Amino acid sequence: MSDAGSEHEAMTIGFIGLGVMGEPMCRNLARKSGRRILAFDRAPEPLARLREHGVVAARTLADLGGCAVIFMALPSGRHVEAVCDGSDGLLAAVRPGTLVVDLGTSPVDLTRSLADRFGAREVRYVDAPIARTRQAAEDGTLSIMVGASGPDFDELRPFLGALATDITHCGPVGSGQIVKILNNMVLVETVVALSEALALARRAGLDGQVLFETLQKGSADSFALRNHGMKAVLPGTFPERAFSTDYARKDLSYALALGRELGVDVLGATLADDLLRRASEAGYGDLYWPVLSRIVDPSRTGPGPGA
What pLDDT does residue 133 have? Predict the structure, then answer.
């Protein structure tokens, strides 16, 4: 049998997308699930690293067609659609009864459309977008928001347990994406508020460390403050290879699209999107997205990923 093989056992798990988050998730599945893992990525390096953990490389997407469960960890809805469509895509390859799972953040309308298209082939489609950091992906402590039927969620949950410590069944297909999109919307808007507060404090002569440490003791405390505020905005540290400005704006665009669809004028999200756009235009598109604080307070701008 070749690396991919011509036959797949019913208990094989497929995994597509071995990027910053996908590679550690695939590794955790290989370590903890007890299943054979067949992985596909266009880059050979993560496949080579995962081989040490028993992960088998698939040559094409069609090689995954016999897997019982197929996970996708892709950068955007556009990438998900590309993987599913076409003569060599998942829609053409998977067999009836397969469970296809989108671990990324994708538009709600695309998610529901793909669920219908896979359903016409008797294939089940689930949205299970992940939250938290690369370190959480490494540690298997992600949070996952799932949109699925009850039986599909019950079947999928043991596999998600290899990736996450918090797994929430949000409702039917599309619900996981809605919760994840709104999670990201609230997070970005909160960092905008923190950036504005810090800019005002510094202009008023107050030490930013004192401000943020004091906010942590009161009603303004939040995960965003303790992590994005204290670790990125305050020191001005915005590394590459973290969740970038351009990716954050992509996710926020899904919230704006949902607002337009539902007739809700999301003013805070619109402001946050404008700041992300300006940050990208200023050359910060590849930097960790709290770099938008440099747009809020231009006096703090500096070259590269640091302060």
Answer: 86
Q: Which pLDDT tens digit goes with each residue over 135-178? A: 999 999 999 999 999 999 999 999 999 999 999 999 999 999 99
The tokens describing 178, both together, are: 């809605």
Half-sphere exposure of 181 (CA within 13 A, CB side): 27
Give the H or E element holding residue 39.
strand 37-40
Contact 40, 58 (CB under 8 A): yes
Residue 180 and residue 177: Cα distance in Å, rounded?
5
Q: In this structure, what are the phi and psi dihedrals at residue 271, rounded to the nearest 5 degrees? A: -65, -45
| Euclidean distance between CA atoms 251 and 269, whole angstroms | 11
The answer to whether 173 and 137 have CB atoms below 8 angstroms apart is no
What tens digit of pLDDT does each residue of 244-275 get?
999 999 999 999 999 999 999 999 999 999 99
Q: Which of 72, 37, 75, 79 is nearest to 58 (CA)?
A: 37
Helix (H) and strand (E) counts for the chain?
13, 9
* Structure token digits, residue 106: 């994708």
C-alpha pair distances (Å), 14 with each of 9, 60, 201, 207, 209:
11, 11, 50, 51, 46
> Which pair of structure tokens corresponds to residue 182?
């709104």
- Residues 4, 164: Cα–Cα separation, whole Å: 27
